[in-house]
Amino acid sequence: MFIDKDRLLSKLNKLYETRMPCCVSLYSYPGEGRSRLLQEFLKGKRGLFYKASCVPWQENFRLLRDLCLRELGENFAQVTKTSGLIKALKKASLTEPLILVLEDFQYLSGQNRRLASQLLALEQEAPSCRLFVILCKPSSLWEKESPREEQAFRLRNFNFFETCRLYPDLSLRDQLLLYSVTGGNPGLLEYFSPEFSVCDNLEKLFFQEKGSLYRLVPGKLQRHYGNSPLMGGILAAIGSTPRHLQEICDRTELTPSAASSLLSSLEKHGMTEKLVPVTEPSSSRRALYRISDSAFRFWYTCIYPFQGEIETGKGREIFQKQVLPGFSVYLKAAFEDICRDFLRLEQSRGETPFPLEQVGMWWGQHPTKKRTEYIPIAAAGKKQILLGACFLTENWLDADALSSLQKHAGLFPDREKWYYLFSTSDFVSGFEAISGSHVRIFRLEDMCRTMNDL
After folding, report:
1. Which end of the chain is more exposed for a tag (fewer CB within 10 A), N or C?
2. Nearest CA to 205 among 132, 343, 310?
């Protein structure tokens, strides 16, 4: 099954069908399904796919020219310069549209600074040119480069509801478990065999020395940062719980400036993220940091502390006795992420009670109780605040669930309050009717049904 995430395939096809020259930038992290998307897009079309390597420009140029020579003919035999190659490609597209995909484009642009501007200039070509170029780049360059580009798209992991559509035969709890570990990353989902349960897959993939994902996660970190112990130390210090910068410094003995710099680098690679309360700017000093990559978060929470036992053949015992009993806490954090995503999707459908300027969490000091209050689901508008709570439970929820959430109302005296309750179970009959117009409730099963009907 191919799910058109964010309708990117539809958008690419729409651009292609204009039969006009075009240059598109496609950003993604590894494993997010870029290759599969491009395979679908190239079906039935004339196209070239070149994967650049980390070698000098002339070597990449030679290999790209040879690919064109093999596929498009002798017109490329005498090409010796970049301008000549682009000119020959434009000529080859005059009679029939031609797609050129440049995978790992950063290796090309890093050695030839004029290449990107030369390709982007295709937008000004005459309509007779039908060359369609796709520049594949890492998501770490999104914020830096995409604002200057006319056609830029960012590929992301499947959200929970898309992941459920891929695995319709799993129970909701197993779907939640699968998503909590993979984060909907297509590359990771491929490792999970339909012949085994999700738990059996986890044990085979992570809790055996030869498990496919046991070494994959730390290996990914090593590819970016070599054998530096600092990055792994920061991820181990964060673990499954968002941490303040000072907490990370205390655990790693790094200075705040050094830790901030390393966290920024990890964020560029999609491994960590900075969180601030929804009512505060991104520069807030109350920021928390967490591992955003689900597989990394799982590894540093459930694998990292037990590597010795796993490598001496005790992985099954560790999984059964140490990991599974406490997994509800881990699943609850994943459920909170799903509920925040649901709010964003509701916002895109125009179903929220007010425009949500920021969706996330809220935490801060209680003015009278002198303690930190934490609200796991929060969304802010100009004069409104949405407060939410998640319940990973099999029990039905009654008014007590709402009362505990409404106790936070005094923290926002000048804002109109809305209350959202999310549950994996059900609510007592008439819950919304007795709770008032500013209260909404959502069962996970109903959330999935709503998203599947779109």
Report:
1. N
2. 310
63: buried, middle or exposed (CB in 10 Å: 19+, 13-18, 0-12)?
A: middle
**DSSP reduced 3-state for 398:** coil
Tokens of 288: 């928390």
CB 340 within 8 A of CB 304: no
Look at strands 22-28 and 98-103 and give their pairing.
Answer: unpaired
Which amino acid does the sequence have at 224? H
Q: Exposed e or buried b for every residue in 142-171, given b needs 16+ CB within 10 A?
A: beebbeebebbbbbbbbbbbbbbebbeebe
Residue type, 315: G
Q: Do residues 22 and 122 make contact, with C-beta atoms less than 8 angstroms apart?
A: yes
Partners of 50 in the β-ladder: 102
| 41-50, 103-112, 212-221, 245-254: the lowest-pLDDT one | 212-221
**Phi/psi of residue 168, nearest 5 degrees:** -70, -20
CA 247 to chain centre: 25
- Is residue 358 within 8 A of residue 379, CB to CB? The reply is yes
What confidence tens digit (pLDDT) does each residue in 422-442 have?
Answer: 999 998 877 877 777 899 999
β-partners of residue 440 are: 420
Question: Pairing relation of β-strands 22-28 and 416-423?
Answer: unpaired
Other CB atoms within 10 A of residue 445 CB: 13
* Count of residues in the chain: 454
Separation of alpha carbons 232 and 227, rounded Å: 9
Q: Using an 8 Å Cβ cutoff, are 274 and 352 in contact?
A: no
Residue 137: what are its φ and ψ, rounded to 5°?
Answer: -130, 160
pTM of the predicted protein model: 0.88
> Could you report the per-residue pLDDT of 177-214, keeping only the tens digit for each?
999 999 999 999 999 999 999 999 999 999 999 999 99
Half-sphere exposure of 431 (CA within 13 A, CB side): 22
CB-based burial, 291-307: b 16+ in 10 Å, e otherwise: bbbbbbbbbbbbbbebe
**Residue 197 gets which letter from DSSP?**
-
Could you tell me if 330 and 300 are in contact, meaning their C-beta atoms sit under 8 angstroms apart? no
Rounded to whole angstroms, the Cα distance separating 89 from 66 reads: 13
**Rounded to the nearest 5°, which phi and psi values hold at 128?**
-65, -25
Encode pLDDT of 375-386 as tens digits: 999 999 999 999
**Amino acid identity for residue 97 in this structure:** P
| Residue appearing with tokens 């801060």 | 364
Q: Is 192 helix (H, G, I), strand (E, B) or coil?
A: coil
Burial class (CB in 10 A: 0-12, 13-18, 19+), 257: exposed
